[in-house]
Write a structure and sequence with these properties.
Elements (H helix, E strand, L loop, with lengths): L3 E2 L1 H8 L9 H9 L3 E4 L5 E7 L4 E7 L5 E7 L3 H6 L1
Parallel strand pairs: 1-5
Antiparallel strand pairs: 2-3, 3-4, 4-5
């Protein structure tokens, strides 16, 4: 897949002080190896992936065009959501 990273996210990923857990490499890993995906009511898709190096799940959100990556964040509640 040819992912498009929006400009705001690209700037955030380039600055480790803004998002220390979220890097371009980890974002791409989650998109290529999701442990779970979910389509939101607005058509955007959420991807979750586990990053062993930081012992966290990251949530990556892609626009409804299926290519434009708009956010990436650690999701500390993911495990709880999946086991509920």
């Amino acid at each position: 897949m040819n992912w498009i990273i929006n400009e705001h996210l690209r700037e955030a990923l380039a600055d480790p002080t803004r998002s220390p857990f979220c890097t371009m490499e980890r974002t791409m890993y989650v998109l290529e190896h999701p442990v779970h995906t979910e389509v939101q009511p607005d058509g955007r898709t959420r991807y979750w992936g586990y990053i062993e190096a930081i012992d966290k799940y990251l949530r990556v959100v892609v626009e409804n065009d299926g290519q434009t990556v708009i956010t990436v964040h650690p999701d500390r509640n993911f495990q709880k959501k999946r086991t509920s």
